[in-house]
Specification:
The chain is built from 14 helices and 5 strands. By secondary structure, it is mainly alpha-helical. The chain binds adenosine monophosphate (AMP) and tryptophan. The site of adenosine monophosphate has 15 residues, from helix 1.
C-alpha cells in the first residue's frame, strides 16, 4: 500500500539579540528569511534570547536588544501576518526539550563543537550554557518540525548536530522528529569583516545593518587593505555584496590602486542599499506597543505548537501515566 504523507514545509531560524545585526547577518541569513518567507507553508523566525544569555548578562541591554531585533526583523521586510515572530524565552518547551536531549547526547560528542574546541585551544573556561548551546539550538528547531533552516556557514555544524540528535531520539523512542535541512547560500556563507576575518559582533569588525551614513563612511575607511595588488581585496569582497562583478569591473579598472576612491564608492553603495531599510525602521520604531503585540501573538501561536509536541515527547519518554 502506498502511503502518501503530506508534509508541511516549515522554515525556521533565529538570531541572537546580542548586539546590532550587521551586514554579515543580513546577507548570510536574514535576507534569506525575507526572500523565502512566501515559499514555505509556515515560517517561524525567533529571537534567540536564551542563547544570548551566554554572553549578555545585563537586564537593560537585553531588553533593548530584544526590542531592537524585532523592529529589525520587520524593517528588513518580514511580514508579521505570515511569519510567526517570537521570543525563545517565552516558550518554556525549548529549554525543557533541551534537557531531554541532554540525557541522550554524550559529552565526547558535544566536545567536537567548534565553539568548544576553540575555547579549549585558547585554554579559556566556558560556561555550561555555551557548552550546551548546540543542544538548545536542536530543541529550537526540532520542537517545530522545521524542514528548512537558513543560516550562515558558522551554523552548519549546529545543523548537523541537530539532525544527529533527532535521529538518536527517533531511534530510542520512535520516529517523532523531522530532520531539518540547512539553507546556506554559498556566495555569502561567510561575509568578511573590516579586518578580513569573518564579520562578527565579537570581533568588533562589523558594519551594522542599520548604520547611519556617517557611521558607514567611518567604518568603510577602517577596512584593512593590503598594498600588494591593484585591487584592495577586502574592499572588493564587501563591494560584491552590493554590486555585480560586471558592474564592479569598470569601476575597479578606472580607480586601480586608488583605495581611498574605491572606499568612497563602496560607502556610497552601502548607504544607498541601507537607506530605505533604515527609513522603514525609523517608522516602525515609533510604534513600540504594536511591535510588542506582534511578539505576543507570535508567542501564542508558537506556544500551542510547541506544547503539543512536548506532550508527545513526554508520552514517548514514558513519564505520562
Ligand atoms: P548571530 O548573530 O550569531 O545570531 O547570527 C545570526 C545569523 O547570521 C546566523 O545564521 C549566522 O550564521 C549568520 N552570520 C553571522 N555572521 C555571519 C557572517 N559573517 N557571514 C555570514 N553569515 C553570518
Ligand atoms: N546559533 C544561531 C546563531 O548564532 C542562532 C540560533 C539559535 C538559531 N537557535 C537557532 C538559528 C535555531 C537557527 C535555528 O546565529
Amino acid at each position: 500500500m502506498l502511503l502518501l504523507l503530506v508534509m508541511k514545509e516549515r522554515m525556521l531560524s533565529g538570531v541572537k539579540p546580542s548586539g546590532r545585526p550587521h551586514i554579515g547577518n543580513y546577507f548570510g541569513a536574514m535576507r534569506q528569511f525575507v526572500e523565502l518567507q512566501s515559499e514555505y507553508d509556515e515560517v517561524f523566525i525567533f529571537i534567540a534570547d536564551y542563547h544570548a544569555l551566554n554572553t549578555l548578562q545585563n537586564r537593560e541591554e537585553m531588553r533593548q536588544n530584544i526590542l531592537d531585533l524585532i523592529i529589525d526583523y520587520l524593517a528588513i521586510g518580514l511580514d508579521s501576518k505570515n511569519v510567526v515572530l517570537y521570543q525563545q524565552s517565552r516558550i518554556s518547551a525549548h529549554t525543557e526539550l533541551a534537557w531531554v536531549f541532554d540525557t541522550i547526547v554524550q559529552m565526547g560528542y558535544l566536545k567536537r563543537a567548534h565553539a568548544y574546541k576553540d575555547a579549549e585551544a585558547k585554554g579559556v573556561d566556558i560556561n555550561v550554557g555555551t557548552f550546551n548551546y548546540p543542544i538548545l539550538m536542536a530543541a529550537d528547531i526540532l520542537l517545530y518540525d522545521a524542514t528548512a533552516v537558513p543560516v550562515g556557514k558558522d551554523q552548519k555544524q549546529h545543523l548537523e548536530f541537530t539532525r544527529d540528535i533527532a535521529e538518536k531520539f527517533n531511534k530510542i523512542y520512535g520516529d517523532i522528529f523531522t530532520l531539518p535541512e540547512s539553507i546556506i547560500v554559498e556566495s555569502v556563507e561567510t561575509v568578511p569583516g573590516l579586518d578580513g576575518r569573518k564579520m562578527s559582533k565579537s570581533y568588533d569588525n562589523t558594519i551594522p545593518l542599520f548604520a547611519s551614513r556617517e557611521e558607514i563612511e567611518r567604518l568603510v575607511k577602517k577596512i584593512v587593505t593590503d598594498s600588494s595588488g591593484d585591487r584592495p581585496e577586502n574592499v572588493y569582497a564587501l563591494h560584491k555584496l552590493f554590486k555585480s562583478e560586471e558592474e564592479l569591473a569598470p569601476i575597479y579598472e578606472e580607480y586601480k590602486g586608488k583605495y581611498g576612491e574605491l572606499k568612497r564608492i563602496l560607502a556610497e553603495d552601502v548607504d544607498a542599499f541601507i537607506a530605505p531599510m533604515r527609513e522603514r525602521r525609523a517608522e516602525i520604531a515609533k510604534d513600540v506597543e504594536g511591535v510588542k503585540e506582534i511578539l505576543d501573538n507570535g508567542a501564542n501561536i508558537a506556544h500551542e505548537l510547541a506544547d503539543a509536541k512536548m506532550q508527545l515527547v513526554r508520552d514517548r519518554l514514558g513519564v505520562v501515566l
